[in-house]
Amino acid sequence: xxxxxxxxxxxxxxxxxxxxxxxxxxxxxxxxxxxxxxxxxxxxxxxxxxxxxxxxxxxxxxxxxxxxxxxxxxxxxxxxxxxxxxxxxxxxxxxxxxxxxxxxxxxxxxxxxxxxxxxxxxxxxxxxxxxxxxxxxxxxxxxxxxxxxxxxxxxxxxxxxxxxxxxxxxxxxxxxxxxxxxxxxxxxxxxxxxxxxxxxxxxxxxxxxxxxxxxxxxxxxxxxxxxxx
Amino acid sequence: xxxxxxxxxxxxxxxxxxxxxxxxxxxxxxxxxxxxxxxxxxxxxxxxxxxxxxxxxxxxxxxxxxxxxxxxxxxxxxxxxxxxxxxxxxxxxxxxxxxxxxxxxxxxxxxxxxxxxxxxxxxxxxxxxxxxxxxxxxxxxxxxxxxxxxxxxxxxxxxxxxxxxxxxxxxxxxxxxxxxxxxxxxxxxxxxxxxxxxxxxxxxxxxxxxxxxxxxxxx
Lengths: 229, 219
Fold this sequence. Notes:
The complex is a heterodimer.
Chain A: H1 3-15, E1 23-32, E2 35-49, E3 52-55, E4 63-68, E5 71-75, E6 89-94, E7 105-110, E8 116-121, E9 128-130, E10 134-136, E11 141-146, E12 153-158, E13 165-169, E14 175-178, H2 180-183, E15 192-204, E16 212-228
Parallel strand pairs in A: 1-16, 10-16
Antiparallel strand pairs in A: 1-2, 2-3, 2-6, 4-5, 4-7, 7-8, 9-11, 11-14, 12-13, 12-15, 15-16
Chain B: H1 4-12, E1 21-30, E2 33-42, E3 49-50, E4 57-63, E5 66-69, E6 71-72, E7 75-81, E8 90-98, E9 104-111, E10 116-117, E11 123-125, E12 130-135, E13 141-147, E14 157-161, E15 167-170, E16 182-195, E17 202-218
């Protein structure tokens, strides 16, 4: 092969690969009980589809990784919606303890040859809930948590008996009292176990070689409460 | 063929005259900022196209003696950071300055007083009427909307508010009864509009306050 022909093929090959500066990178992090769910999208700037930005599918020699502390996982491209949810790159990591505010979460795109672009941010503080193990459905339910932080929060009460209930916490004061008439709707008159969660969300847009990069971190605290008749 | 004409216009450098443009300007106060957004259209009213600023065109917002350029692609915008709180009836002006065509610099609006909504309890039952109030009263147009974006059982509601009013009631009979507790978002809007500079083919400038309150809507 002549040098000119090889150079031409190389040029054609390069033009098929979207430049990092044309990629819009998003990392969504959700803390579950004992695991982290991490969803990444790599949109191509300016290429809109009915589902949002057209997604960049990595080449065989490229790698998308996410992680925190000393944990990391490589994510593969997936263009097949699962249960109606489209998650181009998705993976989980074990989370034995709540994600600490000093445990940076990060996304890395390795394009080979040392071309690595990384975005990272510190998560908001974890939500450590103090809630009663049991509560009568005829009483107000007071839940406390720590530490407090600057962002609004949301609460959810899940049970197998009824639809989940949820509401806003506009001011994070570290305490929430749910009125008894609301507690009564969590279960049938016979009571039930509920999973109570508190969620705080933070996002960052770190500077990087991407066209833009955004990291959303949802810190969720969990408590199991038995609602009694 | 449908798209040939705009391509020829751009490539030959022929400008679109100001009298062929429809301009919609939005002025949105929020906290310590005021955002100005501009949308320019050309073409017929049935199939307008976004107009992209041409060389020598500039959109400029003027507020409290300061000028800021609007930037963007389809929608152009800029945000003023406020040193002091807005007073009622301060004036925002939006100018289209054009080197090669007629400029349109006489579009302005006065910003109405913010409708400060009285706090709503964190838990509000749908079995009772929801009373909302605000101050001060003005003669501007107002409206409210109530939404629950994550609820499958709640269809958005909205209503007009009579000029001069300082309260409104959302009847329990208009709300879905029963079910579980969910987050509801109440928005109270106050807005004022004015026509744009007569150099444009048409359009208006609107200033809109949106006061948003979230609460838990209980059965």
